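hey so u asked for the seq, here:
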Amino acid sequence: MAISQSEVIEVDKYGRMVYHPDFHFKHKKKFTEEELEYICKYNEVDSARHLAFAIGKTEHTIRGKLSELRKKGLYEYYKNLNKHW
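ran it, structure tokens below
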């Protein structure tokens, strides 16, 4: 059985999965409040890869957003929001 190009999963030099339309279905879309709460709340107990699969964005995007939220002082706000999760 031949493997199609869409079934091949590539990783970057850091071992992060690169964009794949089947897994990153929310690629290039703005984060929702619910997604921000989710990644902040579960970041300390789950990996970036699992968070990425859960919300449909790449690991790189997840890590970048978490860093941005920390710099803006919003990480704890979303972590403790308790509105969606």
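Helices lie at 33-42, 48-55, 59-72, 75-79. The chain has a mean pLDDT of 90.
lmk if thats what u needed
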